[in-house]
Design goal:
alpha/beta, pyruvate-formate lyase- activating enzyme, OB fold (Dihydrolipoamide Acetyltransferase, E2P), 3 domains, 20 strands, 32% helix, 23% strand
């Protein structure tokens, strides 16, 4: 085992990826070296997600693998599972430190205060109050797309969601600090800036709200795309919707609906109705007709009847989403819905998910056909195992395309290119490079 080495495992969302970038930067500034193999590192950190049971189960499996292969490593868990006492109990004797991400600046002090894993096995890292970890300059994983967190935490307390308990209440970065980070990225040639937070459009810094921040980002010079995620429908203002028309804004809005039924939305504590959500989509599409809409939805929430599910299905049919992330409800410990009777069977949850997926396939292909024989701008990510290039459009469509053999890969990856679309799929496009 090599001293002053670390291995980093990231599970989950864009926010977790951004957190891991700050962990990497913090460690490397203190002479730690990244290793690709966790069996040789003396510090292993897992940035965890607890939104779904599958993500949580992956953490348990990984910790067991790490312990079997590297008994001497110091193992730290941060992210959504760091404050879960049931997780502490389950991983007792296997994890050295459970550290909320805002305690990152204090990680070494916290580890020093820890007794041996065999004696205690659990550490409540609220020993020292953490500074604003988001101010740490990250080690960006991509040289052309950057996830820029503008805040951390959540005040919404949706009935099914563990995030407010895992990350705490909403705290936002000063506007000037965010702008400075974006300016630095653009100076390095970054092509895509993604502003992220648990509730990005709840941003507040002094008197500045999210539209104020977004305007300043869009006003910066250069050729680049801007996206933001995740948005809550209750905070999607007309002022923010109007900014979708800006040429630097990607024609893509991710807006989680979670259910198309008002009674279910009320039990979820979502603070809007299906009608209000429909109105927001209509306003957004009126501002930008080429706008792609993606969403999140939960099937089988406690008490969801067949009629209530059909309201979600009808909303999908009417709004014709480009893409949706569908989750079968699973109770998260500590949440309000965990106290409700989980009375929709697994089989029925699977059936409902399949119904929405089939609707989505139809609307996704219908939306994609609008791109046929058109030229689109693509930010290229790389090549697949078949040697074809792939990337994303501003509307968040995945594009696979071919290019002449004399074109250098380095000239394409990380750059904007024009691609003519020659074929469409349910959830993707195929094309040819326009030279």
């Amino acid at each position: 085992m090599k001293k002053n080495t670390y291995h980093l495992i990231t599970i989950g969302c864009q926010m977790n990826k951004a957190d891991s970038e700050r962990v990497a930067s913090f460690l490397e500034e203190r002479a730690f070296r990244l290793l690709e193999d966790f069996t040789e590192a003396n510090l292993v950190i897992l940035t965890t997600c607890g939104v779904r049971q599958s993500a949580e189960d992956r953490v348990y499996g990984l910790v067991n693998q790490i312990r079997k292969a590297n008994t001497e490593a110091t193992v730290v868990i941060t992210g959504c599972l760091a404050k879960r006492k049931d997780v502490w109990r389950r991983l007792k004797g296997q994890v050295d430190l459970f550290m909320p991400i805002n305690e990152l600046p204090n990680i070494f002090e916290l580890l020093e205060k820890n007794v041996s894993r065999k004696e205690q096995g659990l550490v409540d890292s609220r020993i020292i109050e953490g500074e604003k970890y988001l101010s740490i300059e990250p080690k960006y994983q991509s040289p052309y797309t950057a996830y820029v967190p503008i805040g951390n935490g959540c005040d919404n307390f949706c009935a099914y969601c563990v995030v407010p308990y895992a990350r705490g209440r909403e705290v936002y970065r000063p506007l000037e600090e965010v702008i400075a980070e974006v300016q630095g990225l653009l100076a390095k040639g970054y092509k895509e800036i993604v502003l992220i937070a648990q509730n990005v459009n709840s941003y507040l810094s002094g008197q500045d709200k999210f539209p104020d921040l977004l305007k300043k980002v869009l006003a910066l010079p250069g050729e680049f795309w801007v996206r933001f995620s995740s948005s809550h429908p209750k905070d999607l203002s007309d002022e923010l919707i109007a900014l979708l028309a800006d040429q630097k804004m990607c024609p893509h809005l991710h807006l989680a609906v979670q259910s198309g039924d008002d009674e279910v939305l009320e039990r979820m504590n979502r603070k809007y109705t299906a009608s209000h959500y429909r109105g927001l989509i209509a306003k957004a599409r009126a501002v930008r007709q080429d706008l792609a809409i993606t969403t999140d939805v939960i099937v089988g929430f406690p008490g969801e009847t067949e009629e209530q599910f059909e309201n979600s299905a009808k909303l999908f049919q009417d709004l014709k989403f480009d893409l949706a992330y569908t989750a079968q409800y699973s109770p998260r410990p500590g949440t309000v819905s965990a106290l409700m009777e989980d009375n929709v069977s697994r089989e029925e949850k699977r059936r409902r998910e399949k119904v929405l997926t089939e609707i989505l396939k139809i609307s996704g292909e219908e939306k994609n056909r609008e791109y046929l024989e058109k030229e689109v701008l693509v930010l290229v990510d790389g090549t697949n195992k078949n040697g074809k290039y792939y990337g994303k459009t501003g509307s968040y469509k995945t594009v696979i395309f071919t290019a002449p053999e004399n074109i250098r890969k380095d000239d394409l990856v990380g750059n904007f290119v024009s691609v003519k679309i020659i074929a469409v799929m349910d959830f993707g496009l195929e094309g040819q490079l326009v030279i």
